[in-house]
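Reviewer comment 2.1 asked that we show a complete input and output for one of the modelled complexes. We chose the iron/sulfur cluster case, as it is the one discussed in the main text.
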Amino acid sequence: LVSLYNAFSKYLVSLYTRMLSVKKILEKEEISRDEIITLLSASNKEDIDCLLKTAYAVKEKYVGRKVYLRGLIELSNICKKNCLYCGIRSGNTKVTRYDMTDDEVLDVIEFAKANNFSSVVLQSGELCNEKFSKRITGLLKKIKSVTNENFRVTLSLGEQTEKTYREWFNAGAQRYLLRIESSDKNLYSKLHPNNKLHDYDERLNCLHTLKKIGYQVGTGVMIGLPFQTIENLADDLLFMKNFDIDMVGMGPYLEHEDTPLYEFKGDLLPLKNRFNLSLRMIAILRILMKDINIASTTALQSIDPMGRERGLKAGANVIMPNLTPGAQRKNYLLYENKPCIDDNADECIDCIGKRVGMIGEEIAQDYGDSLHYKKRQL
Ligand code: SAH
Ligand code: SF4
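Response of the prediction step:
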């Protein structure tokens, strides 16, 4: 009995010390790299709850209990790159390639407007040539002509030349999303073929160019990648803070059978751990960067049906409902088990309002420029 008592009191003391350290860290103004690592490694429920609650309080205070919707339009799955993790990489010959026409995109824009969306994201595989760049410029002008000044377009079309980025900015795109994927150059090189088309410095350079031009700049990383360490993730968060980004989209890495990285499937964290780690990444980032826009990504929802809501509860304030028409949607599989592949857009939107209401939040009516960006402009 005495030894049982001793073991129990030892457990209570260790629990108390750990709680104290996580709690103490969360009370600090500045959080160090080591402390971020402690937060990311927290494994007991009380610690994790404390982290998520603190992040939610920061979110409430700085950006409110509001969810911004961005309608995602997956323009095309044609890609010249061959990222080792991605299901639509050029090397995957099993994919049926498509390219939406401008009219198809404009139909989706009409649908978005009719459903009170004031923002869309145009995303696609990466093509970097004159024809593609002109085509997007033309499309942006058409979108501008059918929307008003209260509408925002985000582009997520990969690495481009400064000239192209400028042209698109001038044609009406205000925001750009380009994930760094991993801020660690060495890890980046393990996730991509080693050639000029997949160069870390080039990607980083693009982020600088986007900022210089005046875009609201978003980046992000995948979480739970093969070879990735907790230290890498802590550095990813510090990278985002030091780069002073305006928006973030980050989520769990999800393996795809027809990609080279699938070979390392056996070394990955279980899905549940990748999910929990992603929530912690969101929460810590919200604490580090109080007024940025953080997306609760679709990849979270692929693991847990309530994944997006849980992302919002961890500090995210943006969701990106997929508005890509069903016919194309099934061919834009970046990873396995992508949700809503069979749904049509209407069903998804209907449930989103209810789901957001369930967690005590509401869908924001304005277009939600990053508050951080606005401050940066002052
Ligand atoms: N071609 C553009 C945009 C489309 S890809 C680009 O690469 O920037 C959009 C994002 O999908 C990528 O940035 C990557 O982070 C994510 N992605 C690709 N494959 C993934 C996978 N297997 N698991 C999770 N996210 C993935
Ligand atoms: Fe192409 Fe983007 Fe996929 Fe890389 S992540 S293969 S650039 S679509």
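The CA atoms of residues 20 and 184 lie 31 Å apart. We note this here for comparison with the apo prediction described in Section 3.2.
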